[in-house]
Design a protein that fits this description.
Layout: H1 2-44, H2 49-70, H3 87-99, H4 101-104, E1 137-142, E2 148-152, E3 157-161, E4 169-173, E5 187-193, E6 198-203, E7 208-213, E8 221-225, E9 229-234, E10 239-244, E11 249-254, E12 260-265, E13 282-284, E14 290-294, E15 299-303, E16 311-315, E17 332-334, E18 340-344, E19 349-353, E20 361-364
Antiparallel strand pairs: 1-2, 2-3, 3-4, 5-6, 6-7, 7-8, 9-10, 10-11, 11-12, 13-14, 14-15, 15-16, 17-18, 18-19, 19-20
Helix pairs in contact: 1-2, 1-3
Length: 365
């Protein structure tokens, strides 16, 4: 076993060196032109304010690229006596985690091309209640193995779809609309708590957040009551963020404790920078900035940690379909460069808004 581990470790070490060298070369290529320009402009004493802002932005982008390599790694390691372990696959997964939007908020180039014809991964044969169907699906969560968990709202259930499967499996609810521990009533979002191996569900019409065991769970446990939960997420510190659609705010909860903090909104419904109006979904980045789909204000807001008001990072105009507008935005994600990806619900499209942009680009739809 020791010999196997040593051989595997040596192979992995070489692959890690190759991975790091590849990224080092990439960073150097980006740094060199910036360095040359700074030296040139310093010699010529020709620094304009716009040049400084542009260079600072480029440097910030490089810092974001480097961040995954210097942050604390919480991955757990184990030694396994198995000749069939695909070490190449393990290295690939770790590299993918550094750059994948699903696993770790990718740094995507603005020229990235997106496939225009989607692939159905869950739900076939139209609306319905069969195991191969969905009815008004809302939030979803993609696991590390690409299993998709879907809040199947009008079927009052959470459905699990394995990669490549033609039918789903009910993993929570599915016993009709109701407020019993084994029931849900229009769930709108779901995430996985890996540490507890459980689902956390926004049970919207029951005004509660439910924890449901992933392994053969027959019923759930209410962990937060009296909340109009529409969307939710959890950060690296296991802090839970709940979008309260009805109270127009996002609250942060420390799991296992009755401690809550308003981190966005909380000033009633409205369109001021310290307000939200029927928000839907939320994303939290590594700096603990909170991004909120401020749906009825047709905008996406960013609230930095501890901020008293947010800033508009997408939309913000009146409802519309121009590139500067959104219409009832829903799901959102943000990459390492601060680029916002938003499901523009009312316009049936996915939009990308780069940091500081006054209008977005349509990438799908």
């Amino acid at each position: 076993t020791i010999n196997k581990v040593e051989k595997a470790a040596e192979k992995v070490q070489h692959q890690l060196i190759e991975l790091i060298d590849k990224q080092r070369i990439n960073v150097v290529k980006q740094i060199e032109p910036i360095t040359k320009e700074i030296l040139y402009r310093r010699e010529e004493e020709n620094f304009l304010e716009n040049d400084i802002d542009r260079l600072r932005k480029k440097i910030d982008e490089i810092q974001q690229i480097l961040k995954p390599f210097i942050q604390k790694d919480t991955n757990k390691c184990m030694i396994v006596d198995n000749d069939q372990i695909d070490w190449n696959r393990l290295i690939y997964i770790r590299a993918e985690q550094l750059y994948s939007p699903v696993l770790s908020n990718a740094n995507l180039n603005t020229n990235t091309k997106w496939i225009q014809n989607g692939i159905t991964v869950a739900g076939v044969n139209g609306r319905g209640a069969g195991m191969h169907q969905l009815c008004n699906p809302w939030g979803s969560y993609v696991g590390d193995d690409q299993t998709v968990y879907i809040a199947d709202c009008s079927n009052h259930r959470i459905v699990e779809w394995k990669r490549g499967a033609t039918t789903g499996r009910v993993v929570a609810g599915g016993n009709g609309a109701g407020n019993r521990p084994d029931q849900l009533n229009c769930p709108t979002d779901v995430i996985i708590d890996k540490e507890r191996d459980s689902l956390i569900i926004c049970d919207y019409e029951n005004k509660r957040v439910v924890r449901w065991p992933r392994q053969n769970g027959k019923s759930g446990e209410t962990i937060i009551s009296n909340v109009g939960c529409w969307g939710l997420t959890m950060d690296d510190d296991r802090l839970l963020y709940i979008v309260d659609h009805d109270k127009h705010e996002v609250r942060q909860y420390r799991t296992g404790k009755r401690q809550e903090t308003v981190v966005a909104g909380g000033k009633g419904s409205g369109n001021r920078l310290n307000q939200l109006y029927q928000p839907t979904y939320v994303f939290v980045d590594r700096d603990h900035s909170v991004y909120v789909s401020d749906s009825n204000n047709n905008r996406v807001m960013k609230w930095m940690k501890g901020a008293k008001q947010g800033i508009i990072v997408a939309g913000g105009q009146i409802q519309g379909n121009s590139l500067a507008q959104l219409s009832n935005p829903f799901g959102i994600s943000v990459d390492l460069l601060g680029t916002v990806y938003v499901a523009d619900n009312g316009n049936n499209r996915i939009m990308r808004w780069t940091q500081g942009a006054i209008q977005g680009t349509v990438i799908v739809g």
